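ok posting inputs for the magnesium ion job
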Amino acid sequence: MGITNPEQDISQILFTEKQIAARVEALGMELTEAYRDKKPVMVCVLKGASFFYIDLCRQMRCHLDMDFLSVSSYGASSKSSGVVRLVKDMDTDITGRHVVIVEDIIDSGLTLSYLRELFQSRRPASIRTISFLDKTARHPAELRTDYCGFEIPDEFVVGYGLDYAGYYRNLPYIGVLKPEVYRA
Ligand code: IMP
Ligand code: MG
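and the output
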């Protein structure tokens, strides 16, 4: 892991700051149309979705509630442990509410199905999911999100909230992490 400059560990930029902003603006418009009179509860899955979540909510021109939860499945590795754990729950009562779960990236789809099941048991009016990125080749089609920023190939990416071992979240773009960084 580069000590002074995280950018030296990036092999390729997949989406620039500008491309991200344009896509998030379009998604915000789409969600505004879909949820105009629904006062949705927008749920941020910490920490990875944080940048996307804030930018997305800011682009929505309708009433909405904001809340945050945290799950853990990875630890400090680039491979999923296969176990999802609720680390911090949200405060909002979602009974009868329209819920939008905001995720950073869908890989195996395990986190997403865990959250869908958990939320279903709380009797909301509806649940939809939105993920900034989706590695579609890594999971069956039924685990796709309702809304997605970009579909990407099976590479380990960081930036715009996404981390490796806690770092690189603050890069303003989405970049591919050099494999030697996580194989080291
Ligand atoms: P899933 O449960 O396998 O779908 O994994 C979802 C979680 O794994 C995401 O919320 C991320 O925290 C993490 N993850 C999966 N792929 C990547 C990646 O390429 N970069 C950074 N984090 C990733
Ligand atoms: Mg993560």
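notes: Strands lie at 10-15, 41-46, 65-72, 85-88, 98-106, 126-134, 147-151, 157-158, 174-177. The pocket of inosinic acid (ligand 1) is lined by residues 48, 73-74, 80, 103-112, 156-158, 162 (CB under 6 Å).
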